[in-house]
Write a structure and sequence with these properties.
Order of helices and strands: HHHEEEHEHEHHEEHEEH
Organism: Pogonophryne albipinna
Protein name: 39S ribosomal protein L1, mitochondrial
Distance between the termini: 158 Å
Radius of gyration: 43 Å
Helix content: 25-40%
Strand content: 5-15%
Number of helices: 9
Structural class: alpha+beta
Low-confidence stretches: 317-322, 325-331
InterPro entries: Ribosomal_uL1-like, Ribosomal_uL1/biogenesis, Ribosomal_uL1_3-a/b-sand
Keywords: Ribonucleoprotein, Ribosomal protein
GO cellular component, one term: ribonucleoprotein complex
Largest sheet: 6 strands, antiparallel
Amino acid sequence: MENSDGNRLHQQLIFAGCQRQLLRAGGPAFTGISPTAPRNLPVRTFAAVKPQRKNQKEDKEKEVKKERRVIDDSDSRKPYGFTGWAPVDDVYVPRFYPRTTYGAAESVDMLKTFQRLDFTPLKQPIFVDLRLNMKLEKKKKVDAFVSTVHLPHPFKTEMNKVLVFTADANQAQFALESGAVFAGGVELIQPILDDEISADFYITVPDMLQKLVPLKNKLRKKFPKSKRGAVGITILKMLEMFKTGHEYMVENDCYVRTQIAMLDMTEEQILANLETVLLDVCSQRPADMGPFIERAIIASQTSEALWFRSEDLLQKPTEQQQEEEKAVLTI
């Protein structure tokens, strides 16, 4: 009896345990927490997408631009960032003093002095290096240009080779007699493309300009243009200009580097050539836009570079001179 009662009790315990497991697996888990009570579930946050600006121009205008601070040290004992205004001895460190800028006549005289002290050849070229302010109003700028100027004192020993395009046989013969190397019409196009003939300058009459389109890629900057004075009806005048003319161009967007004279020329001749080049350069931009030349350097082939004031040769005419010119024009 005792064994049967013990077995029965053991079976009841096992059945109760199995029933408890079934309730846990199949039915809802009953806990002390109410199912309607709010629970603090983890929430993942994301960065908000930055909206795109629709009116970027208006935002740029609202931004306050930092103005460049200009220090006026003209009345101070020494310039800002330097040891003094000028060295007191012949031996000094150049970076401790502001760069010396000379007058145009003084710089030419110094070049001649350097030649005598250094025992260098007297017959050597003089070069000028100009940095231009190519900016115009409304974010525009002056296009890089090529110009030919007639120097009052040419320094070249040989004349430039000039080719003339014209369909008129009489004009072609006249051009050859006036000093042109070649003269003719469309028959010269193919020899130029084949490199059989070439010249330093190419000029043409207006009627031939449309027929010379195949030469644009070949000649490039030498292609005749009216802005350079290479297109016109006065063949003799153009020939005289380009046979002895001096050509210069803008390099690297804002620099003009060209030869202006020889060191064995007189100081007056060098200054006259320099003034002619500077005036022609400044004529490429409106005068009311301010100074066109920001920096001017002159040097010979063997000397050091000298910064000079280009405005010395670009003085504006006085009121008296303007009145005299008006009087001459009225007469």
